[in-house]
Design goal:
The structure is a homodimer of 354-residue chains. Helices cover 29% and strands 25% of the residues of chain A. In chain A, the strands form three sheets. In chain A, strands 1, 2, 3, 4, 5, 8, 9, 10, 17 and 19 form a ten-stranded mixed β-sheet that branches. A seven-stranded parallel β-sheet of chain A has the order 13-12-11-14-15-18-16. Chain A has helices at residues 7-13, 16-31, 124-142, 157-169, 182-196, 206-210, 247-251, 293-297, 320-336, and strands at residues 2-4, 36-37, 40-46, 56-66, 71-82, 85-86, 89-90, 93-95, 104-111, 117-122, 149-153, 174-178, 200-202, 215-218, 237-239, 255-257, 263-267, 311-313, 341-343. Chain A has nine helices and 19 strands. Chain A is of the alpha/beta class and 354 residues long. In chain A, helix 2 (16-31) packs across helix 3 (124-142) and helix 3 (124-142) packs parallel to helix 4. In chain A, a hairpin with a 2-residue loop joins strand 6 and strand 7. Chain A folds into two domains: 2-123 and 319-347, 2-Layer Sandwich (ornithine cyclodeaminase, domain 1); 127-260 and 274-313, Rossmann fold, CATH 3.40.50.720.
């Protein structure tokens, strides 16, 4: 039987601690050459007939194989996206157009022994946990040992997971959260503070959140820099995607780790036979030349050398092997609990000898 | 509802004529920049513990979006493969290890309007028809108008589709078939001859099959050249994958068409961070520089100029957009006939706003 899990199923079995353990194992396997990771691959098509700003259909894939986890994972999404301007900044957002105002992103797990599909699960909760867990792992290996205060930019879905993971990596005494809408940041402070048992204070500006903190975390969907050079101070560890960091902020780093996250983007009507690669903001940092988090975790590279150094991690795209490692844990736990719906596996197999 | 079709369902609705029409449309759309095609992406892991020669697990993906067909197609396979030596030649074959001695290769169709999964179908029959249909289309545009005799190397599954498509592209008076096992070629001549209404004669050697024919088709799984320079004669059209053609054979061509079929292969334990690209036999032909079949079909490039020219087509890997175009036709026909099994689409969607 092939198991179909829901986001609720995933949420009910996957703790941030388990997620981070699975990710740590995946990175070690990757560092030792015992895992395979396909680059993320986005295929896009403009939808000029839609009213939303820059509406486009997008199909994404990434694949990872982790022998130790016994599975290959395909993460795919099939979505209609747009780029609204919110608070003067361009954001990348999905439209919920599938039946019942839903969207489609799936993790498909396959057996390395037989090839059969083991499970389908939505990627929402797992993606949030994976991103949070990845930044949490980086923080565990790069932040000062005694880091205890954290500034958080963003109060959405992802911010919660970032904070949960940071709270596992370090004992946090104080968290300051800023997001543009007062109501959002206040609710976040109240609700997530209670949930994670953390002292979270909403503050009036990004600059205030970044002041007097050991760790600065951005969890926004801004496509433009929100972390300026002034935000970054000695001894700090910074978690952010590259587009959230200004060049001045990046320039202050003593050590920046990344993970293997090159990606290909193919547009319809782009340049050349296969379209053109995604246009990136020119940056002083060549992402592909950065030291890898996996090598820091495996002890091949030392990240932080002194307490006053500034360290950063930006994860870029996800890696298929993260979904393999975490997905395999979810599947195991869900089976033990008897969760999910079943589809006969023979609906997906074939006898045909081609 | 998301429809699940079987190979039998696909076979019962998809004729070679419909398949070739869908492919022709897909190529035209591609040539006009109205379709998107992801490069094929193979992710491999050696399985040294298995007894079979060069056993490895392999996960393949390719994606194509054809707006005119209304779908994005993901073709994926999750298989354990090996490389046995058969008749002194290395072959690439799958092991049937999924429950009931099966294997896993699926075409997943997604809606461009909503993102939802529309259908899952095995890739076996569709792949056979697609490859046959693609070579048939090339033959339609490149072979001499009066070509009427065909030499066929191979008598397997693929050979049947190649011949069906060739029989649609040209009126064939005589077919000569050779494959190493006498019983196989004799049965092929008898059965496929009756099925397609063609005069098919089994012959004793590849050289004999290639003698006095207007069209030469190789449909083998040989990893080494089987078409020598001597086989290729003035006025001939040759259908073969690059590995089946010797350099001498390739050198005789006046015109070689290909399709957009670059691929990435990532090995575990290979060179570099992402492994190394697939090792190819060094060849005088740079596949990526070949004129494209889509441009021949769209009339942008003229293939054959004179009756005595030698034309060739080798398709390399498949293209995602072929599976989108043909898969969409299969889905439409299957729905009209009420075929297949249904899975609630909400099993694959999510409400989560990430």
């Amino acid at each position: 039987m092939t198991l179909v899990l829901s986001n609720e199923d995933v949420e009910s079995v996957l703790t941030m601690k388990i997620c981070m353990e699975a990710l740590e194992e995946a990175y070690r396997e990757e560092a030792e050459g015992r895992a395979v990771n396909q680059l993320r691959y986005d295929t896009r098509m403009p939808l000029p007939e839609r009213a939303e700003r820059m509406a486009h259909y997008e199909f994404k894939t990434m694949v990872g194989i982790v022998p130790k986890a016994g599975v290959a994972a395909l993460r795919m999404s099939s979505t209609v996206n747009h780029r609204p301007i919110v608070h003067g900044m361009e954001r990348s957002e999905r439209l919920y157009l599938a039946p019942g105002n839903t969207t489609v992103g799936l993790i498909q797990l396959y057996s390395l022994e037989t090839g059969e599909p083991l499970a389908f699960m939505p990627d929402g909760v797992l993606q949030g946990m994976r991103v949070g867990g990845t930044y949490g792992l980086a923080l565990k290996y790069l932040a000062r040992e005694n880091a205890a205060t954290l500034g958080l930019l963003g109060s959405g879905w992802q911010a919660r997971f970032q904070l949960a993971a940071a709270g596992i990596a370090r004992k946090l005494k104080l968290v300051k959260v800023y997001s543009p809408t007062r109501e959002h940041r206040e609710r976040f402070a109240r609700e997530v503070g209670a949930e994670l048992g953390l002292d979270i204070r909403p503050v009036e500006s990004a600059a205030e959140a970044a002041t007097d903190v050991d760790i600065l975390v951005a969890a926004t969907n801004a496509k433009e820099p929100i972390i300026t050079g002034e935000f970054v101070r000695k001894g700090m560890h910074v978690s952010a995607v590259q587009s959230e960091l200004s060049d001045q902020a990046l320039a202050k780093a003593d050590f920046i780790a990344a993970h293997s996250s090159k990606r290909y983007v193919i547009y319809m009507g782009g340049e050349g036979q296969y379209g053109k690669l995604s246009p990136h903001r020119p940056s002083m940092v060549e992402h592909e030349k950065l030291p890898l988090l996996e090598d820091v975790i495996a002890g091949k590279i030392k990240g932080r050398n002194r307490d006053d150094e500034i360290t950063m991690f930006h994860s870029g795209s996800g890696m298929g092997l993260q979904f393999a490692a975490v997905g395999a844990r979810v599947l195991k736990l869900a089976k033990k609990r008897g969760l999910g719906k079943e589809i006969p596996t023979e609906w997906f197999t074939q006898t045909l000898h081609t």
